[in-house]
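ugh ok fine here u go
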Amino acid sequence: MMKKITILLVLLLPTLTFAQEQVKKIDSIVNSKIEENDPGLMVGIVKDGNIIYEKYRGLANLEHQVKVSEKTRSNIASTAKQFTALMILQLSLNNKLSLESDIRTYIPSLYPKVKDTIKIRHLLNHTSGIRDYVDLMSIKNKIWWKQVGLDNDDVIELIEKQEELAFKPGSKYTYSNSGYNILAKIIEKVSEKSFNDYSKQFFEDLGMNETSFVKRYMSVIPNRANPYSDWGYGEWFHTPTITKTNGEGFLYTTLKDQLIYEQALQNANLNNNILLIKSQLPIPNSEITTYGFGLKLKNRLNRSAIHHDGVTHSYHSQTIRFPEEKLTVFIMSNHGNIRSDLIADEIASVLLPKKEIIRKETYDNQFYKVSNDKEQQILGKYISPSGSLIRIEDDKGKTYYRDAESGYDFEITKDSKNMYSFVYNPKMKTVFYKNEMILFSPEGWTKTNKRSPDLSASFEDLNGIVGTYYSSELEMSFELKLTKKNTLKIVISNRDNELDVQILNRNELLADNYIIMKVERDVFDRATDILVTVSNRAKNNRFRKKTNLKFQPKITTENGTIQVTTIGSIDGETSDILLTKNHPNGNEIWNKKFGGKSYDKASSILATNNGYLIIGSTSSYGNGNYDMFVIKTDKQGNKIWQNSYGDFYNEYGYSAEKTDNGYLIKGTKQYCTSNSDIFNRKCTNNVWVVAIDKNGNEISNTVLEEIKKDYN
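structure:
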């Protein structure tokens, strides 16, 4: 019997020694991150359903030198999303709600103009198109964490003002805190309890008695760790927390409670806990599988992993679960100068068995074939799979990979003909082909960015963009101005400084290297709206043009400009069209006048090979009250021909474009229910396109759509 015990101890000794060595390495990692008198760091590890490591280092309160301990409660920020999602999943499993239900079943005040279904599951995995309130407030220049008492009702009120989504629900993934504030409100509607009361009972049922969402921003939280950072000044500052939102974060918990939950997760299969088992899987019927119930379902450290991080003020946390190894690393801290995610990766690397990176077969083939390709022109604009704008630009002799939405600039250096390395990580490569740029990561994944065509912008394009734009959703505006040097400037209503605007092409602008502006045009090619993206989490905010909404009455020529205007008579009973040729400084060279005995109006002018085309409307000629009016002149302004197009009611001409056979004239055509009863009749205006040949003869005409705007 004694011999058997001795043999068993000998067999166990290497395992025990190895485990002790791992503990020493992890202790060394933790101790190297902070000093004993720094803000705190709390680390826990669960393996095979058992807690194998629990470490507390640093202080919960610097003023009173209170050490962090198993009683310390810290804010885990967005790592809390998994618990809000877990509550929703439980309600779904209990048939209290359906993940396929439209959120407006519970909050009908949201997005009444949006016809697409916004499902509860879209909120869970950030595919709803609902913009993040944090970034919306940033656009409004109301930094969220400075808003005293900000709560979920304030967030809902802000979202209620949003008329459009950033994208069609289910079509894209864009992280949004707002979705989880809405989920908290849905939980209240379904349970008929406050979110705080409901969640408190929920955590108690999980055995997490020291875990709760913040109830009032000024309330006392026993054993709370205060958040600290030195903000680069070399001395500690206490970061104030004066807001109170729920669902997306602001969950105060202890390391003990989190380890209790991690143990329950690892033992869920043993207990057949369906709720916990399903919570770690992708959402049923979802369009994406990389984010689930408040959790990221992406590989980490080259392994299958389930994880999430959280950062609020100087609080931060990280959960990483490796299901195949039955290993979880959880970290939380009130130390704003360190990062939980990096520490968690470093610790997990100690515990995980070594594993070689397995790359896709195509990786190496694509990676190395560029040496045989023709050298490509790499500079320009590219569009990522998510639709973000990436620019490759030279700046003072260096080449940069610039992601406009994130605001990051990465220097890249040339390895070979079309292969470049990122300076911050030389193993990260980007390879350029004729119409695309492919990123190659050292982990083996690739991402293809498509080259964007460069649609050059003319002076007329820039002049047409100039004006004031207003967002009713954000209750703010901005003005685009053109300088004497033909550069664009933007002045935002809630900011004092004037920003430079980079012109990427006629429909894309970039302000201050991070504000992306996409110009939308009407059927007459006029800039009517600009969609503004300041961050990836608040895309495509619509700003509608309020001033300078006009057609193109002025074009540049080789030696100045040529312009059309409408001039009235002295008695105001007629009007004519005036064509003027001007020097570059604006002084007139010559003018020509066109019109008849009644009202003739000019809208725009188009340069042709041998002269100009004037587009407008006339009541001097034609069949009805007003008719579409087109005048063709030579380069000296002499009339070659003129013609009108229309019927009994009003037809107006606004713009033109060249075709192989002549021109397309765009305008509006009016229809009325009666010719005589002008008081009771109903009239509609429709977009009207008239095709004419080079001599002004009508070839065909088409009514495209009814319009609600008055284009006069």
